[in-house]
Specification:
mainly beta; 12-stranded antiparallel beta barrel; two-stranded antiparallel ribbon; elongated
């Protein structure tokens, strides 16, 4: 009995093994080779789509490496006192015009900057007093044109070369009064190209940000010209009988142009020039202007210039040694700036 059961199990196992082997043979027939194409490409809808080339128009975009800034202004101030005014005072009226333009070209590590600064103003004192004659005098007169090329050595340091010209528009006089108190011109102190200065400088410049720069002009030459024969050339340290003086010097220039608030700006420039023959006695010039915008066109300005030059001695005032010179102004005027 047991033997018969064992025989039955052997027969069943053999049958199952045969069926499994036949199933494996059928599966091998259904297996596809790797390079077999299973989809009929001719029946695919994608094959019937035609390629279309869409033209892309040229936009004509160009990079502008130039930047320009222009500022035009006119300031006026006036005071008046009647003859009966018990506290004293001098009536005066003053008008000045200003123009400033700056252009900057920057491409890669190279940059070029040019700046033109023009200022002129006149004042008339005691204009209501008809008993004596008073003359109008200039209280502002400057012509300045600067050019500079530079090449970046690092993010904050550059190599630069510059050329600057400085003079004035109008004659500057010395004045005297006669026995009646009337003013008259007693001499000519300055004029256009009397003096005029041409300065060439070469050196290194440190620019930590867009609002401040410090330049070291290790090789600087400055020529001073006086072409008006009525101007005393010795006032500007030029030998009598000559019209020009050449100077080799070291020059340090610091510039600041920063917004202290939304409508408040400070602009300052300090210039030190030291003759290599007398490094211990340099000349100094400091220009400072604080400007506040009242409206888009109306602006209040407070500023001044401080100057010390050992080569300048005011002999007309009986001086025998140089003095500290300064001028100051407070003005309300119209200012138009581009770009807005």
């Amino acid at each position: 009995m047991i033997v018969n059961k064992i025989k039955l199990l052997v027969v069943v196992a053999a049958l199952l093994a045969g069926k499994f082997a036949s199933a494996q043979v059928d599966l091998k027939k259904l297996r596809a080779k790797p390079d077999t194409v299973l989809v009929d490409e001719s029946k695919s809808p994608v094959a019937n789509i035609n390629q279309i080339l869409v033209p892309i128009p040229k936009l004509g975009l160009e990079v502008n490496y130039w930047k320009h800034w222009t500022k035009l202004g006119m300031n006026a101030n006036q005071t008046a006192f009647s003859d009966s005014w018990s506290q004293g005072g001098v009536s005066s009226i003053a008008v000045s015009i200003l123009a400033n333009h700056k252009s900057e070209y920057t491409k890669n590590k190279f940059s070029y900057t040019t700046e033109l600064d023009l200022q002129y103003g006149k004042i008339q004192n005691d204009f209501l007093n008809h008993d004596v004659k008073t003359l109008s005098k200039k209280n502002l007169d400057r012509m300045y044109w600067d050019h500079k090329v530079s090449y970046k050595l690092s993010p904050k340091w550059s190599l630069f070369a510059s050329l600057a010209f400085e003079s004035q528009f109008d004659k500057g006089y010395t004045y005297a009064k006669d026995s009646l108190g009337n003013e008259y011109v007693s001499g000519t102190k300055s004029n256009f190209f009397a003096p005029a200065r041409l300065t060439e400088s070469f050196g290194f410049e440190f620019i930590p940000d867009k609002t401040f720069s410090l330049s070291f002009g290790t090789g600087t030459a400055r020529q001073t010209f006086v072409f008006d024969k009525n101007v005393d050339v010795t006032l500007y340290d030029i030998e009598e009988g000559k019209t020009m003086k050449n100077l080799l010097a070291f020059q340090l220039r610091a510039k600041l142009n920063r917004d202290l608030a939304k409508n408040l700006n400070i602009k300052s420039e300090y210039l030190l020039t030291a003759d290599y023959e007398k490094l211990g006695d340099p000349s100094h010039r400091l220009d400072l202007t604080l400007a506040a915008k009242v409206t888009k066109l109306v602006q209040v300005s407070l500023g001044g210039v401080m100057l010390y030059d050992s080569d300048f001695i005011d002999k007309d005032r009986g001086k025998t040694k140089p003095e500290l010179q300064f001028s100051q102004f407070l003005a309300l005027g119209l200012t138009y700036s581009l770009p807005q």
